[in-house]
């Protein structure tokens, strides 16, 4: 069964059990460290007829950062990086949506990290829509955006003996969404 974009119109809740908010950072100038946030929630309004009327909101609990290394995760939660005791949440609130082609949408919004809010634009690929075995209408989107962590006040670093730094300024945010239309 083919779904038209008009059929997607509605209010959605992001199914975080089948979605991911992750990131990639270069470590010691030679490798990438990947991580994700395990505790977050989000919602969206999709207007399939006029995508410009669509919107989204995501709230991430900073303490849920997970890079599969507890010592590194504790350092990322500290004042050196996310300062989660002062800024427990990372948020994104959309301000505009535009359709770039048949399956690509640019969502612009305000990203707040460590109490600093900056505009970002994320290109999302529409992966598809389906009705799951429980009768829920699902929509899938995937996107990513590179940000400079220093723009958000995340400035800690350590110089390497041979030159360079321990952690890249560039962080790539990766978003994979499965959203369920509300009844």
From TrEMBL:
Domain Lipid/polyisoprenoid-binding YceI-like, first and last residues per copy: 11-180
Gene3D superfamilies named among the record's database cross-references: Lipid/polyisoprenoid-binding, YceI-like
Pfam families for the chain: YceI (PF04264)
TM regions (residue ranges): none
Assigned protein family: Belongs to the UPF0312 family.
PANTHER family: PROTEIN YCEI
Protein's recorded name: Polyisoprenoid-binding protein YceI
């Amino acid at each position: 069964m083919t779904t038209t974009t008009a059929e997607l119109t509605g209010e959605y809740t992001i199914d975080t059990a089948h979605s991911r908010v992750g990131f990639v950072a270069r470590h010691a100038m030679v490798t990438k460290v990947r991580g994700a946030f395990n505790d977050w929630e989000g919602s969206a309004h999709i207007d399939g007829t006029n995508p410009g009327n669509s919107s989204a909101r995501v709230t991430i609990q900073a303490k849920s950062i997970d890079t599969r290394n507890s010592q590194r995760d504790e350092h990322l939660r500290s004042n050196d990086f996310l300062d989660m005791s002062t800024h427990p949440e990372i948020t994104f609130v959309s301000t505009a949506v535009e359709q770039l082609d048949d399956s690509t949408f640019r969502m612009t919004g305000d990203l707040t990290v460590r109490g600093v809010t900056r505009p970002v634009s994320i290109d999302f690929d529409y992966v598809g829509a389906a009705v799951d075995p429980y009768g829920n209408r699902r929509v899938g989107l995937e996107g990513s955006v590179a940000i400079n962590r220093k723009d958000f006040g995340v400035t800690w670093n350590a110089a390497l003996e041979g030159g360079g730094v321990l952690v890249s300024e560039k962080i790539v945010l990766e978003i994979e969404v499965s959203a369920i239309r509300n009844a």
